[in-house]
Each structure stands twice: as C-alpha cells, then as structure tokens.
Records
---
Amino acid sequence: MDVRFLGGAREIGRSAVLIDDSLLLDFGMDSGNPPSFPIGDADPDAVVVGHGHLDHVGSIPTLLAGDARPPIHWTPPTYDLATVLARDTLKLHGGSYNCPFTETEIARLAQVSETHGYGESFEAAGYEVTFFDAGHVPGSAHVLVSDGDTRLLYTGDFHTEDQQLLSGTAARPDADAVICESTYSDVSRPPREEIERSFVDSLETTLWEGGTVVVPAFAIGRTQEVLCLCEAYGLECYVDGMGKRVTELFLRERNREFLRDPDLLRRAKGNARFVDGRDGQRERIAEQNTVIVTTSGMLHGGPAMTYVPAIRSHPTNKIAMTGYQVEGTPGRELYETGSAVIDGRSMRVSAQVEQYDFSAHADREGLLEFLAPYADARILVNHGDRCERFAEELREEGFTAEAPSLGEELSL
C-alpha cells in the first residue's frame, strides 16, 4: 500500500491523502488569503471523507469537474456539512479569486454521494473501508482502510473527552499503520467540565452586572456546544450566522443518531432565539442584557462584525472567544492587544476579552492515550504545526513514528 500526502503534511489545512493513486482520503482547503489547495492532480477511483470541516472537505467539488464522477463516501452529517460549506465558499469567495468549482460541481455531489454509519464496512476503489466514531464533530469518523494485507487507520480529527454534542472516541481498531492528527500535541487542558463551568460562571457574572456577552463561535460544533451550555444553565441567548443553519442540519432525522443526546440539542435550539438580521435587529439585540452566539469564530467576518463594535465601548460587556485564534486574525489581535481591525476599521475595545479552549481536538494526553494500543504500528504524524517534533517525542516513547512531508510518498 503506497500513501502520498497531498496536503495536511506538517501543516494544518487542505488535508488530502492518496492511497495507491486510487483511493483519496479527504480533500480540503486552507481558507487563508489567498486560499491553498491540495497539490498534484488527483484523479481517484473513489473518495472517503472523515468529517465536514473546510480543511477536510473544502476542495471536494473540484473532483467532479469534467467527466470525473468518483463515488464519495461519508456519513450523512458530513455530506450535509460539505454541501453547506461548498455553497458558502462559492458565495464568499467566488468573485474574489479563481474559485476552483462552480454550482454545477456542487450539484453533482448528490449524484455521487454514498453515506454510511459507524461500524458498517463498505467497498471503495477495491478496499474495505470502515468508519468509527471520532468524537470530533457530528458525523466525524476514523477511517480504517484494508487491502487484505495492510490495515491503515486514518484518524482524521478526533477528541477523547466527552463534549455536550458527542462522546469522546472509544474506537481503537487493529491497524498496521496509523496516520494520526497532532493539532494539539503540545497542549494539556484542564478537564472539559472545568472549562465549561468557568465559561458559564463568566457569562453569569456579566449578565448579573447588566452587561452583554458576545460569543464568537465556529458554526460547526462550537456554536451548538455553547447553545447546549446556555440551555443547561438557564441562560437566555441569541444565535446568529451559519450556526443557525448547522444547528437545524444536525437535528435532521437522519443525523440525530450521530449526536450524544439529540434531545439536548433540540432543547438548546428551543432555548435560543434565531436572528435573521433584518431592520436593525442586530443593533437592538446588542443593547440587551443577553448572550449572543455568532460567527465568525475568529472575527474576520459574519454578524460578529456588527455585534463587537456595538458592545466594545463598555467595560461591563464581554467578548468570550471559544476557539483557537490563528495568528494574524482579528480575534488573535484583539485577545493579545485589546484592539483589532474589525470590518475594515481599527478599534480599541474596552469590553472584557476572554478566551476559553473548547477545542474538539484531543490534547497531548488524549493523543498519547489514543496511540497507546498502537505501539507496534507505524505512526505517520500529520495535521499539525509541530509534526516532526511530535514524531520525535513518540520515538522517544518507543513508537515507530515519522512525519511525512508535503508530497512525500511512503510504502506501508
């Protein structure tokens, strides 16, 4: 089995792994400015997708240009998310750069889509493939690929701790080689319950003092986590941006089985007030003593561009960020300096700014816990900004580990 890394090797973004020039695992994009896409000219016989985040599915429609129609295998939530993200990408960026796909390719996704549940083996490009719950976002999967001689486990993104939406991954299928993500290989977090309690306490304090809380949150997974916490602790909240659509998507009948507690998310949706943004609605909401959960998570667009300027001047108000802020984003600048360029305007923020690590990735301890059963397997470290260092640390622990470089091909 030959494996070539077309993206996601020693980097985060544009994940893509090609097996024997036949089976493609993920095909994402890096949404930087300008965006970047997987290298090479992949022409697979079939595609298997781990989960529905842009860095794993963002380039999928390009595979359906011309006469190419490879079947695409994924879970139902991943298919739904990939379609939403593709249309959003086309809407946001179609006019600003040479977007590599059109609505025509997006429409073809439905023609080639084949959905599967966890634990159901299926055939793709002559390989036996099985999905296992990865505990990252609804529908996320570890992908086990077997050619009859070699069993390759592609972890995709995963989490080992329980979240509001999902249980942590418990799957550890036998494998000869493991392609393992390493996003937070140098981070150790407090228990999830402690982070959630600290976050809720902070929101409750601001509301008690009469302030407004803006919670910038990623639309997929993070928004729903925050809504569930608001419902669980009786906090009134609004939800704005793409997170509204994704919440409804997760509650579709075919997607409910991929949630830890579908009724919790249903109650959370009922507790939240959905914002349509018409006739100055956002400005009026920003004046209320409430919680506003909104995209974008890093403050580089979305309804947050209205809410943050509206609440920034009063120190009783709060901006509670729930995700990692990439260097160079307004969210990172705001957290580190107290000011940022928001919607083209440089502004000082007097409101309190806090950061909470609600990541859906395993931390260092989670990665090591996951890999413990694979002491005899070959570990290929990817999807991180310190892949080489983590591979070295694994070797020091007795693993056979390496960090493939972009474009490298290995034989397993």
---
Amino acid sequence: MALIVQKYGGSSVADAESIKRVAKRIVDTRRAGHDVVVAVSAMGDTTDELLDLAHQVAPISAPRELDMLLSSGERISMALLAMAIHSMGFEARSFTGSQAGMITDATHGAARIVDVTPVRLREALDEGAIVIVAGFQGFNRDTRDITTLGRGGSDTTAVALAAALDADVCEIYSDVDGIYTADPRVVPQARKLDVVSSEEMLELAANGAKVLYIRAVEYARRHGVMINARSTFSSGQGTFVLSPGMTAPASIVTASPRTQESPMEEPIVAGVATDLSQAKITVIGVPDVPGKAAEIFKIVAKSGANVDMIVQNVSAAATGRTDISFTLPKTDASLALRALAAEQADVGFESLVHDDQIGKLSVVGAGMRTHSGVSATLFEALSTAGVNIEMISTSEIRISVVVRGDDLAGAARVVHTAYGLDGDTEAVVYAGSGR
C-alpha cells in the first residue's frame, strides 16, 4: 500500500460532471489499495470571477477580506468532491487549509508555508477515509487569519502535504498528459517527456511553462518529493520530475534518454518555454557613473516589482550617458514606472520607455553544460525566421531571449524544430487552458 497525494486543478473540477469524473479516479486509486490525500483547486474560473466581483465592489480590496473571499472557492470544490466520493460508497472527509494544518506566514495574497501539522489528516487516513484538502490556503498562528498562497498555491499545497505525510508520490493532475517540450497550444508538435530533472523544471516553470508552478517545484526539490504530472482526462503515466538522488520508476521506459539510468545520453535541450506576461522598461540617459544602476534597482525593489532580465548599453562618449533596460511582470510595471518617475530628478536620467508588447523565449536543458553550439543553433533558427532579438540572458542550463510578442509563437515553433524536439503527432490539450 502506498500513500498518494493527488492535486486537481480548476479545469479538472470545472463542473458537476468533471467532479464526478475526478471522484471516480480517486476511488479507483483507493480500490487499488492506496491511501489517498487530495488537494483541490476552485472550480473552473471561480477565483478569477471572485476577483472580478471584489474589484466591482471595491477597486482596492482589503487584503484580509480578499483572502477570506478567495479561499471560499476551494471550500466549495472540496465539499462537492467529498460528496461525490460518498455517493460511490467510500468514506471521504474534507478539510480547509487551517484544519489540515497548513501554517503560513502572515502575508495575505502570497503567503509562504512555514509548517505543516497534518494531525487530523493522519487520523482520517488511519480510520480508512479518503482525505480532501482545500488547496491554495493556510492559516497564520499569530494573526489567526486565513491566508492564500497566490497563483499555483494548490500545487504547493499538494507538495507540502506530500512532504509532511511522507507520501510515495505527489500526482499533479491538469488538462495535458504531462510536461511537454513546449506549450502544446503554441507548438502543436511538442513531445511529452517521460522524465525531467527538478533543475530543468525550475527553469521551465520560471520562464513561462504553466503545467507546474515554480514554488511547488522548489518545495519538492527541497523536501525530496517525487512529482508526477498527469492528465485528469487520460490514463497515461505522465511525466516524473526527479530531484537529485531520485531514479525513475520502473514503469518508465528505461531506454528513454532522459532517465537517470543513462545520464550520458541526456538530450541537450529539455524544452522551449514561452512567456507573454512580461513588459520591458528602458531608463534612457542614465549618467554612466558608479552607483547609478544601484540607485535605479533599489527604487524598483522598493516598489515591489520583480526584475527578470537586465541589459545596459555602452555609454555614448559624447554625453557620458547610457540606457538600462529590464523586464518584469506586466502587473508590476506601473508600480515600477511610478516609483522611478518620482525619483527622476535625484537619479538624473532623462526619460522612461514602457513596452508591454514583448515575448520571452527560453531554451532549457541540463545537457547545455557539456555541449557547445547551443546558442548558435538558437540564433541561427531565429535569424532564418526573421525574428529580431532585443535582449539576451543566460544561466548554466538556460538561454532566454526577448522578441516582439507577435513573433513569439512562430519563433517557438522554429526553435523547437531546430533542436530536434518535434514529435510525430500533435499534442492534446483536453480542456484548453494548460492547467
């Protein structure tokens, strides 16, 4: 008997029929002799609808009350799922985040898990019940308030429960069959991976891949949790995310070059990630003297914006001034622009330019460490397609470029083909959202 933690996203429990389908899958796992703990998201687009409603009532919502509102979505789906399981003749008990022992810091809207005390969950499992937990939410002991974990919080909830309960695997269910070499909605010929390293998955998630959220992957890597990304709508075995020291399950085809058994055969590139959620700010005419970049990014940091890529031009000899460009989430851009504009006289730059029509393309692969020519392949493919590169950033296992947003999808397909990642058939997205 294994202990399996399963997580079902919003598209998996979008309506009554979907909830009954998920309940059957959970019951089938229980019938196979396994203990089951389930973390569930709000139904469909419930969270977005609640956010819209809150903004209609109050354009600036009190963070505490917004968390109280948003956490209700998961409570609805957890109770309905437990009811569906009961109707199939199995005992199921639903728990809110606080009842499940998800202890967080006091940050509303983006709380971080500081401890998990799943006493009531363990008691329910010992009594033979299937456990259903509301994802995305927790409880702060000091303020005694409900908190939410931010986007992807249900993934993080599931991984945290798996770590605390010492589960054998954490299955993350969505509407795609696993982790692909690219977003199948952008690159139809994307190929499903049997195995991906947690290191590669962190880079893919950080650069736009939507199947798993970066905080969940970080938590799994830190606590040694094996993740299996699967589809609610098919019976495929999905993709296993392996942290250091883990080996692929026996069910994985051992001839696959991405298994731990044959690291020397590891492909150079694991996947191509795309991201249309970023904007670019250019600070024009910055005095090219020591300390000015520090001043600029201290201002940006105080605004709460999260900077991604940074490029500084060579200064003009005639003026002694330079331009500094950086990318950040579109949602943070207005905050950063206001903060910089307020300090323009003190910093001494000439003007600001905001561009929200960009796209970021990233190529990720652990094999980059030991293979040359990866950059040349990327740049040649983009050149052949007539795509202009505006910014470049690299890490040990990643190359990212910023291009025009309208060019991103075509660029992804060309680059995907250039690295030999295309599959023989078109990938399937069952519900259309990628989650």
---
Amino acid sequence: MTTLEIETVEMHTGGQSTRIVVAGYPDLSGTTLLEKRLEARAQHDHIRRLLMHEPRGHKQMYGAVVVPADRPEADLAVLFLHNQGYSTMCGHAVLALGRYAVDRGLVAKGAEETLVRIQCPCGLVPVTVEADGSARFSSVPSFALALNRKVETESWGRIGLDIGYGGAFYAILPAKRLGLDLSATPVAILVAAAAAVSEATAAQSEIRHPQEPDLGFLYGTILTDGGLGLEGNSSRNLCVFAGDQVDRSPTGSGVTARLAIMRARSQTVAGQEHLFDSIAGSRFQARVMQDLELCGTPAVTVEVKGKAHYSGHAHFTLEPDDPFPDGFLL
C-alpha cells in the first residue's frame, strides 16, 4: 500500500539534472502561474521535499512540474523545484523541457526546428528545438541591477561585485577577487565562498524587480574566471544557488545575467557569440539578441544554446510507515 505515487522523466543538461514530473502531482487551482507557485509552496511542498531530498533525490537535485499555462500564447507552463524551494527561472531545465515537449508531442514537430513557448514564473521563454535535440532559448528582459556594488564580508572585507538579472538575480564577481582560482581551488572552498557572498549581498542590498515583487530576491552567486568567452576562448562559471546547490551546467539564467552585465559595461554587442563553461566542463553558447528598456531600465534579451539528454524514467512511491516522508538532506 502506498500513500503517494509520482512518475518522472529524468534528464540532464550539461550534467545538471532535471527531474520532470509527468504524473501524480495534484491539480493546482491558482489562476496565474505565480499563484500556482504560491499554492505549491503552501499546500504541496511535501512532494518537492520527497522528490528533491534523500533518499529519492539528493542536495543537488533539480526538478520541474509541467502545469497548464495561463498565457494564451504559451504551449505549457512550469514550476521549478530545488532543494530549498521554487525557482523563478532555470535555463538548463528550459532546454530540457523544450526537447521533452517535442518528443512527447506536446507541440507539433517542425521539419527542422520546433518552437516551444514555455511560461516560466519570470515570464514567457521561447525555446527552439533542433532536429538533433539541441535547443536554444530566448530570455525574458534581463538587466544589470548594480555594477561594482560594495559589500562588506567577514573574510575578504569590502568587495565589489555586480548584480544581474536573467530571470533570477545573481551576485557576479571574478573568483580572484576573493583570492581564489576556479581551476585550482577545491570546489568545497569555492562553494563556501560563494555562499558567504550571497549571504552578505542579500543582507546589504535591496533586490527589486521593476515589474513583479515576487521576483525580487537574490537567487545565488556566480564566481567567474574573469574572461568574456570570446574568440573561442570560453569563460568558466561556478554558480552556487539556493541551499548551497552547485550548478553542474554553466547556468542558463546566470549566463543571461552575465551578458546583461557585460552589455551594460560595453563588453559585448548584439549578435556577438560567447562561450561559457561550467565547473563540470559542459558548455553553453550565448549572445545578446536585442537591446530594450524595462520600465525605464536598459535591458537586453539573450539567447542561450545547449543540449539536454535523457537519463531515465522513475516511479516513486511513499509507504504509510516510511520514516522519511519529507526526505532529508545531509
């Protein structure tokens, strides 16, 4: 006898997991996607914990729940899940969902490319899926919230960093500013440093989205190698978000935020191709598509390209006497 059964499709993009819930999640009554997100958090968070936490998941697990869209132009909508809660945007998961939607017949497949319009909590994100399963998404309007913001830290004193929005807000700075090296410093030290920067930045900075208050929070910190990813020379990212979770991909929303900052610093132009690598060695291609304004703030749209792969299917159950109905994290 089981009290809960959940079916999922397992994918990864550049090494970062996306556990797509395909059956067993309760219907949500919220009218808008943001209302559904609040409802999921308030009434069904035990399902997120069951799927993301041990023993069925792990601290680095990431998930997505496909729900009906409330925007008429969208093909589907999604709630993003992680070890701590619910993201507003996730580029690696969007790339996976684009391929999944085409393969599952959720949209009519084109001869060479297929457009999938995915409604995310941050807005509508079009994804173009190519015949080989590669995909590219076009970001929501993204911008630099702050350049060279000064933050007081316990370990490094007063440091300068940028805050960028790419569907979620990130603090972004070169690792060398903290005396660290993405290629040589142990990952555990890099993660601890990024988490400390996130804590200090969130405490000392006002993070506000010009249109939607629910989007106004710092999601994480991205440490970079200081490069621009130009002329075939990729630039490396380490993104630490939520509860010290480390993105194995270059981070789609993080790459978007980086390009928004680079555009604000006149370090890129529309159409210029950039390469970004993750701590695991996977790669995204990205470019600024268009300059625009968002409520009077200079902004850009960014295209990010990568490829998701299938890794399996799962049928999760919960027995009445299971001592860990909410899972656990070590």
